[in-house]
Write the structure tokens for this entry.
Amino acid sequence: MTAKLIVKKLSKLFNDEKGEGLQRLKRGETKEQIFRETGVVVGVNDVSFEVQEGEIFVIMGLSGSGKSTLVRMLNGLIPPTSGEIWIDKDDVASCGMARLREVRRKKITMVFQHFALFPHKTVGENVAYGLKMKGAGKQERREAAIEALSKVGLQDHADSLPSELSGGMQQRVGLARGLATDPQILLMDEPFGALDPLIRREMQEELIVLQKELKKTIIFITHDLNEALLLGDRIAIMKDGSFVQVGTAQDIVSQPADDYVRAFVADIDRSRVYTASDIALEAHKISPKATVADALKVMLINDVDTIHVVKDGAAAGYITRQDANDAPPGTLVSKLMKPEPPSVSGDAYLNELYGPAQSGVPVAVTDEEGKLVGVVTQESIFEHLVGDEDPEASENAANDEEQQEEGRPQ
């Protein structure tokens, strides 16, 4: 994959005109110590990361962690104190204002939490506003606006005013406005934070569907870990202006970097984090043309009680040890197998496996072509739902964080 955004040693300090705060930061002093002794607020502290083209990179943290400051530096709304921000061959941190405007026009746009729609303009005019700033003609703007609105299911509301739409619909307009200019990078700062929980979930699912089609590079800011785990290809957890851990949802839930992260993930619904592919075991297979004796041999070698019967790569059925023991050794597997084994796609979450797994038969995991790539057992589902976090460590980390909140600059 190709890195679309590269951030190197990025820091932002507020009220540090003399540079004393930055020097203290480089000496290893804490955010709280610097604020207490100098009044300088450390917004972002020495952050480095890369975002791959077509990736949803989620940055999450509590209030005051620095995530919003970070995302505003990525498109030049806030100048960094030090560091580099590379979008392709342009360093947004150091380029001139003319070049920065060009990067914004052609490569990057932002979707805000509070819609920021012009109340006196129609929905279509709001969506087309960025194109107007680019100098596009009226007809081109209209066509692009309708196309963008169709992506979020609002093409019939192009001539409505924002006040005539619900909050969820207005957020869809904000998303459509971001898409209308066809940006390479979307910055989304808590875009669904003001929505009711049900509408918020709908917007999250809609973004997932859109991303499969558009494959944009997205930097998504949130304070909600469940939202981060649902949306992010990778997730960065921030604390006190720094990244504590960067990884996939599975990495963060199964291998938290420290007690702070462990406290975050302690109450996470693991059934919505892990997929069938994540926990799949090797599938033991046999041809329908094989005999029962062949099947028993496979079961014995692999110490399993069930194997799948595979035809053209797909699971056509399964055979159990008990059935095989009860049949003459020369019986063809095709005559004995049970058809239509329980199966799921590899991207199915664990909560979607509860029903198929109730049969007690290992659930067949299939790829996009329907071919058998692994199996999931009841035991493997249970193991991943239970996890191995230390509850005492999680509680201690949470208590420490609460005690520190009072002294933390926001």
